[in-house]
């Protein structure tokens, strides 16, 4: 199903990124499928909470750099983030392993983030000469402040789950052995909660903290288009594929 597995379990819609061989890297069909599923959940009264997780060793390692099926991926990624923010029901992210590149704003757009100790969050875009996308430039400053957001965007530093929790980036940090139990407890709690109340709460919080999301995404998309045409991007992709250090020239 375009790299997405979906199951409805009572009032919970469980969506799983399902490309474990690619560490759940996303391409355009996968993003389109995810946006469609989130849109359907928004108008389905039988769904009262959504769980977003990744299969295998990672939550999501970002965009698929193979170059196949990636036309329009930036706008598709933006639609997914907006669908999560606008969905009038709680969306819970269960994160283990990498939430890197687009995987980082994908997780942080969710209302509640439950992270295992193995989780880390990384804006890896600068490693290939790109800039953050998916609305990361709007999401992160509101969570951790401009200084830390800039640090993540410019250094591509891995922020491990314990630090992410200390910074206020995520909602829950679990132990090694109770990740699944804590995730399920959180999910069942919101699924049994006052759904209409949650919807209005999300709407108010988005108006307060994410009123510029679409404008920021437009700048990110414009920047990505410009940067994809640079020598630095081409060098970044070559270095990634060849597993070597990059030699950026600033052009």
Describe what is shown at a glance.
With 251 residues, the protein is α/β, with parallel strands linked by helices. It has helices at residues 28-42, 73-86, 103-108, 136-144, 146-155, 161-167, 179-191, 195-209, 213-228, 231-242, and strands at residues 4-9, 12-17, 49-54, 91-95, 98-100, 112-115, 120-122, 159-160, 172-173.
Helix/strand-derived category reads alpha/beta
Q: Please provide the ordered H/E string of secondary-structure elements.
A: EEHEHEEHEEHHEHEHHHH
Largest sheet: 6 strands, mixed
Fraction of helical residues = 40-55%
Reading side by side through the largest sheet, how are the strands ordered? 1-2-3-4-6-9
Mean pLDDT: 96
Shape: globular
Q: What is the chains' assembly state?
A: single chain
Gyration radius over CA: 17 Å
Q: How many β strands by DSSP? A: 9
Outline the low-pLDDT stretches. Answer: none
β-strand amount: 5-15%
What is the overall number of helices? 10
Cα-to-Cα separation, first versus last residue: 39 Å
Organism: Mycolicibacterium monacense (Mycobacterium monacense)
GO molecular function: catalytic activity
Pfam families: ECH_1
Family: Belongs to the enoyl-CoA hydratase/isomerase family.
